[in-house]
Amino acid sequence: MYIHVHWKYFQNREISLIAISSSGNSENILSCVNVAKQKGVQVVALSGMHENNKLWNGNISFFVSSDLYGIVEVNHEAILHGIIDVLWLEMNNFSINDN
């Protein structure tokens, strides 16, 4: 239910793909990003490890500067929670400043 509600909300948004790869070099993720970009889909990229990773090319990119997978993944989780919170607030007609 939770995912369904957010997917339904996301369908009408410009941001259509959130790509996550700790190393930024996962071929399956990069393939999805390439297809999305070819179709004109907006991409939010979350990556880490090294700044020259291949995923560091989203329309919006979040990079976590750490060589430790755990640190990168926990930071990606925090970023995603922030995105979900903002979407929930907007969907329920709240302002970020109201809370």
Concise account of the structure shown:
This protein is α/β, with parallel strands linked by helices and 99 residues long. The protein has helices spanning 2-10, 27-38, 69-91; strands spanning 15-21, 42-48, 60-64. Strands 1-2-3 form a three-stranded parallel sheet.
Overview of this structure, please?
The chain is of the alpha/beta class and 99 residues long. The protein has a domain at 1-66. The protein has helices spanning 2-10, 27-38, 69-91, and strands at residues 15-21, 42-48, 60-64. It has a three-stranded parallel beta sheet.
SSE order and pairing:
Blueprint: H1 2-10, E1 15-21, H2 27-38, E2 42-48, E3 60-64, H3 69-91
Parallel strand pairs: 1-2, 2-3
The major beta sheet can be summarized as: 3 strands, parallel
What is the CA–CA distance across the termini?
24 Å
According to DSSP, the number of beta strands is 3
- Morphology: flat
Structural class: alpha/beta
Task: Report the average pLDDT across residues.
Answer: 78
Order of helices and strands: HEHEEH
Strand order of the largest sheet: 1-2-3
Strand fraction band? 15-25%
**How many DSSP helices?**
3
**Helical residues, percent:** 40-55%
What Rg is obtained from the alpha carbons, in whole angstroms? 14 Å
Unreliable residue stretches: 1-9
Features of the shown structure:
single chain; 99 residues; alpha/beta; 3-stranded parallel sheet; 3 helices; 3 strands; 44% helix; flat
